[in-house]
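Workshop exercise sheet. Pairs work together: one partner reads the sequence aloud, the other fills in the structure field after running the prediction. Swap roles for the next sheet.
Pair: D.N. / O.F.
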Amino acid sequence: MTPRATVAAIAAVGARALVSTTVCGAVDASLDLGSLIVFDDLHFASNRMADGSLCTLFTGPEIGGRGHWIYERPFGEGVRAGALPGARAAGISVRDGGTYGHVDGPRLNTRSEIAQLAAAGVVAVSQTGGPETVLAGEARLPLALVGFVTDHANGVTAEPTPAETLARLFAESAGVFQGMLAQALPRIAEAPGDPAGIMFAL
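Structure field:
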């Protein structure tokens, strides 16, 4: 199922909020491996899906609600406010805020590409969270994006993260996310908050 179809289906059944998770590489050298980030901003300059199409729910003029998603920050503050104490209650180190950088992949990024992202203020990068954020925004679903740091991206530290460490942390990520979500989801259900921004329909 594509991200577009997934978000549309979730919205159609009446969900009040979303929590999306991603394993990510640290662009900020101060981030500890194995820690979480609850992002508060997005760098997704291409705004394209994996197939090259524009990242939007409104793929044709016949689809109602087409317009501009206008916001100050792209993530729902109510959902973020539930995810942060959820992580802490689960005993997981978590950073409040930071810019998520979406890259296309499937390859990892070169040192110069990571340096460009760092200059734009990105703290961590992966290949999954950009479309989910935009589509949830268009669907009027409050969203929190939570990243689990598995490695330092190319050029961020003097020594690269060993492949064995990346593989181990990747394998541990599901359990970490489950622990965080078990604590966070009841908090979010009580107060999911409002969607980020508005949809300005033409």
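Discussion prompt: The chain has one domain: 18-201. What would you look at next?
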